[in-house]
Design brief:
With about 425 residues, this protein is mainly beta. Helices cover about 10% and strands about 30% of the residues. Strand 24 (about 255) and strand 25 (about 265-270) form a beta hairpin.
Length: about 425
């Protein structure tokens, strides 16, 4: 029965307060918000791989919402997973938030196991060419990937030079990886086994794996970095948000264990706060990781995906990502660019050789763009030639704008007789001819 009079109550379907129009069941003594009357029974959200169901009659127990990590009062309504051995639970308003739910309800006769089997059968993007058995373990040693013309062979051991990049995630190649014997194409085993379609906590719609054109670059919707290689895109025609996620971010989940903080971190949408690593303030429509214990620790996606180790050509040891600086102030300098470091920013450090690098110097300005790829000449309207992305230009002329020699990636004119070179950061500054 709909009651229009004003009164304070707690909604039995969502557990939050109300003070005006509501529905009443006099038999069961239920009070329900007008909007909560139409809550769907079953939904599928990006934060969980099973269907979750609404209930307002769970046994009372101490539970934490797996979306906001605050307590769920099970005396009132919530969404929970009924799969065997799964104790997933979420507040009603967390589960039906537009950032994690596409607004569609799941019918009662939905066969979850059949749909999972169907997805698995059509989701594989590689064809197996050859397998080898090692005892009880069978390993796929040769594949045909949908995004490359030739077969790829698996490499178990060996070292690659620093110029070798995985064509999926654009990180430096490390074993195990698949490679093409006819051209310089590499894929980490993990990247080669990515599914064609994927649901992810970062976006409410199904995402599809795509490969970028190396003559152009894309910006990741999660971390904001420019990248080539593989990415996942939303192809939902009704989605008003353009969403594209690079592979480094797609490998993250809704929770994160990071050595910089003692507690687990969870992903939040539409959140604006200063990152504890770089102290930049994230855009209010972006995502970030927050502490589950509410101790105001925040990581933006760019810092959350920083590798824990880095290579420096003048150090035979890997440098470790360091989050706390208790060094003497006289040592607050980067050994690569020789500029002063901010002691509050994260950096890379080798304790044995006492080498210290800015995180930006450790990887350069364009770490996830393909070295050797081209940019259209329209990138600089007044320059007549196209550009190539190069890793270092020690033997080339200084940057046309700042006059310094580049330590990392830069843009270099493809014409051999043209001495035009420019740092990526300087490419956004006014060009003087």
């Amino acid at each position: 029965m709909l009651l229009s009079r004003q009164m304070s109550f707690i909604c039995d379907f969502c557990g939050t307060t109300g003070d005006r129009t509501h529905y009443l069941c006099a038999t069961c003594n239920l009070l329900v918000h007008k909007n909560c009357i139409s809550l769907p029974r079953n939904i599928l959200i990006t934060r969980h791989h099973h269907v979750i169901s609404h209930s307002y009659s769970l046994p009372q127990q101490d539970e934490l919402c797996r979306i906001c990590y605050e307590e769920v009062d099970t005396r009132y309504g919530s969404y929970h997973c009924s799969a065997s051995g799964c104790n997933y639970i979420a507040h009603v308003h967390c589960a039906t938030n537009k950032a994690v739910w596409d607004g569609k309800s799941i019918p009662e006769d939905y066969d979850e196991r059949s749909m999972e089997a169907l997805d698995e059968s059509i989701n594989w993007i590689t064809d197996v060419v050859e397998e080898m058995s090692f005892g009880e373990i069978t390993v796929t040693v040769e594949i045909k990937h949908a995004y490359h013309d030739h077969n790829l062979r698996l490499t178990f051991s060996g070292e690659m030079n620093d110029d070798g990049q995985c064509d999926g995630c654009m990180r430096t190649v490390s074993t195990p990886f698949y490679s093409c014997e006819q051209c310089k194409f590499f894929l980490h085993k993990e990247c080669a086994e990515l599914p064609r379609n994927k649901r992810h906590p970062f976006h409410k719609h199904l995402l599809t794996l795509t490969k970028s054109n190396t003559n152009f670059y894309a910006s990741c919707s999660a971390c904001g970095r420019l990248h080539h290689g593989f990415s996942y895109k939303c192809n939902d025609g009704d989605c008003r948000q353009f969403f594209e996620c690079d592979i480094r971010c797609i490998l993250l989940s809704d929770t994160l264990e990071h050595p910089s903080h003692e507690h687990s971190l969870f992903i939040v949408h539409n959140f604006s706060a200063n990152c504890n690593a770089c102290r930049r303030k994230s855009d209010p429509w972006n995502m970030a990781y927050r502490c589950t214990k509410r101790c105001d620790f925040t990581l933006d996606l760019e810092c959350a995906t920083l590798p824990l180790t880095a290579r420096y050509k003048h150090d035979r040891h890997p440098l470790t990502l360091t989050c706390f600086d208790d060094f003497d102030p006289s040592q607050h300098y980067c050994d690569l660019c020789e500029y002063e470091r901010d002691p509050n920013d994260w950096f890379y450090y080798c304790a044995e050789c006492d080498n210290t690098l800015h995180s930006g110097c450790a990887f350069g300005d364009l770490p996830f763009l393909k070295i050797g790829s081209n940019l259209d000449k329209s990138f600089f309207g007044k320059h007549p030639h196209p550009f190539t992305i190069v890793k270092t230009i020690w033997d080339c002329p200084p940057c046309k704008i700042c006059g310094e020699v580049c330590n990392g990636q830069a843009l270099q004119c493809k014409e051999s007789e043209c001495n035009f070179s420019v740092h990526w950061k300087c490419s956004f500054k006014p060009l003087r001819f």
